[in-house]
Automatic annotation (TrEMBL):
InterPro entries: P-loop_NTPase, T6A_TsaE. Belongs to the TsaE family. It comes from Streptomyces roseus. The lineage of its organism: Bacteria, Bacillati, Actinomycetota, Actinomycetes, Kitasatosporales. Keywords: ATP-binding, Cytoplasm, Magnesium, Metal-binding, Nucleotide-binding, tRNA processing. GO terms for molecular function: ATP binding; metal ion binding. Pfam families: TsaE. This is tRNA threonylcarbamoyladenosine biosynthesis protein TsaE.
């Protein structure tokens, strides 16, 4: 999942919005950690549950990573704006855990990443994840926009 995050980082530009969906412990934060590595941002990406959002500035003049955990964000976008993040969202890459139905208005263009645990016939395959990535809006409309993700190996 971390490697997928690193690869995904290579596709992202300032202003991009990524929504991460998946049950508790699916790997949303783990993917975001890889994304932070790929973007070259400052600070360890950890679960922001108790702060709702954390800004990781770029170490290399690229976009900052804004990592949001919307789990307790009841009011959606208004509340998100109230967070008063000391950063410009159009100049950042914004990644939101548990953001479905809450932050879509932030951008017409967004990536939806859905993470599922793989289930085997007789056992739950604890470490295996199945990930689908869907691009919405003109930003992701090119047929090969997400092609780079195809080659990420599963571990
Ligand atoms: N293939 C995998 N990808 C991601 N995490 C994995 C994988 N296999 C095992 N894990 C473990 O599953 C856990 C995933 O935790 P993580 O915090 O990334 O999930 P999360 O989706 O952010 O959860 P939450 O909903 O609580 O925010 C970690 O403990 C990680 O080590
Ligand atoms: Mg998390």
């Amino acid at each position: 999942m971390q490697e997928l995050g690193r690869t995904l980082a290579g596709l992202l530009r300032p202003g991009d919005l990524v929504l991460l969906t998946g049950e508790l412990g699916a790997g949303k934060t783990t993917l975001t950690r890889g994304l932070g590595e790929g973007l070259g941002v400052r600070g360890a990406v950890t679960s922001p549950t108790f702060v709702i959002a954390r800004v990781h500035p770029s170490l290399s003049g690229g976009p900052a990573l804004v990592h949001v955990d919307a789990y307790r964000l009841g009011g959606g976008l208004d509340e998100m704006e109230d967070l008063d993040l000391d950063v410009s969202l159009p100049e950042s890459v914004v990644v939101v855990e548990w953001g479905d139905g809450k932050v879509e208005e932030l951008s017409d263009d967004r990536l939806h990443v859905v993470i599922a645990r793989a289930v085997g016939h007789e056992e739950v395959l604890d470490d295996v994840r199945e990930v689908s990535v869907r691009g919405i809006g003109a930003r992701w409309s090119a047929p090969d926009a997400l092609a780079a993700l195809q080659g990420v190996s599963a571990r």
